[in-house]
Write a structure and sequence with these properties.
InterPro entries: Nitroreductase (IPR029479), Nitroreductase-like (IPR000415)
Strand order of the largest sheet: 1-2-4-3
Shape: globular
Distance between the termini: 36 Å
Pfam family, one: Nitroreductase
Largest sheet: 4 strands, antiparallel
Bound molecules: flavin mononucleotide
Cofactor: FMN
Order of helices and strands: HHHEHHHEHEHEH
Number of helices: 9
Family: Belongs to the nitroreductase family.
CATH architecture: 3-Layer(aba) Sandwich
Strand content: 5-15%
Protein name: Nitroreductase
CATH topology: NADH Oxidase
């Protein structure tokens, strides 16, 4: 590394803050506005500057566009519909790792409920409207109409610490996207469909699906994109030990 890199001054700190503050989980994209391959390459190259324990760089990324994207969408939506018709099929589509807790407790369950019902409420979907909830959930498997779908895997042999590294990489992807006028939605919804996705993208059996992500230009007219998520004040999760 050159010392000039050490001396780099972030000339416009406000734009870093703006990238962080303006990132949100976008759930409606412009289907017909493509993302140039060079832009995706730039995003991934920059994201790979993320730190990782002993520089292990655990990330593996599959970029789906065009026919490959569309074919995966059709397979996943068919599986999702089949599971809706026959809930017993859920046994076949197990997540490879517990992204969510197996036992929900407060305050996390409260935040989860607030998030879920907040989104459905915004869309006018009432409790009990199962078909509409299913349809909205299925938007995940259409990448919310984003032209680019990303799938992230990690070698199974790696440890839990690599998940921390991976999270930093994912945030970098989302922030680098923001810097280029793009939006994203990270998606654990895909995780249950690993056995469809991994062969589809040509991933090896030694790889574990961590999540998917939609990438594209936001639909600025979509009501769903007005969904606002609160945060606890920093003072509530910070203890000053002096
Ligand atoms: C790893 C990860 C997986 C997620 N999976 C989904 C998903 O499958 N579908 C979805 O609509 N949102 C998903 N989200 C988005 C969260 O609901 C969202 O980050 C949270 O509610 C905060 O909102 P914000 O991202 O708009 O700030 C996921 C977020 C993360 C970090």
């Amino acid at each position: 590394m050159t010392l000039s890199r050490v001396a780099t001054v972030v000339a416009d700190p406000g734009s870093v803050d703006a990238a962080i503050a303006s990132r949100f989980s976008c759930r409606a994209f412009l289907r017909d506005r493509p993302v140039p391959r060079a832009t995706i390459e730039d995003i991934l190259a920059l994201a790979s500057r993320a730190p990782s324990g002993t520089n292990t760089q655990p990330w593996k990324v599959y970029v789906l566009q065009g026919a490959a994207r569309d074919a995966l969408v059709e397979k996943a939506c068919a599986a999702h519909d089949a599971m809706y018709a026959d809930p017993a099929l859920a046994q076949e589509y197990r997540e490879e790792y517990d992204y969510y807790p197996t036992r929900w407790v407060s305050p996390y369950i409260d935040r989860r409920r607030e998030n879920g019902w907040g989104l459905y409420g915004l869309l006018g979907i009432a409790k009990g409207e199962k078909d509409r909830m299913h349809a909205q959930h299925q938007r995940n498997f259409r990448f919310f109409d984003a032209p680019v779908g990303l799938m992230f895997t990690m070698d199974r042999v790696l440890g839990r610490g690599s998940l921390m590294d991976y999270g930093m990489f994912l945030e970098n992807v989302m922030l680098a996207a923001r810097a280029r006028g793009l939006h994203t939605c990270p998606q654990a919804a895909w995780n249950g469909f690993a056995k469809i996705i991994l062969p589809h993208v040509g991933a090896g059996e030694d790889e574990m699906l961590l999540c998917g992500m939609s990438l594209g230009y936001a639909d600025l007219d979509a009501h769903v994109n007005t969904f606002d998520t609160p945060r606890e004040p920093a003072a509530s999760f910070t203890r000053w030990v002096e």
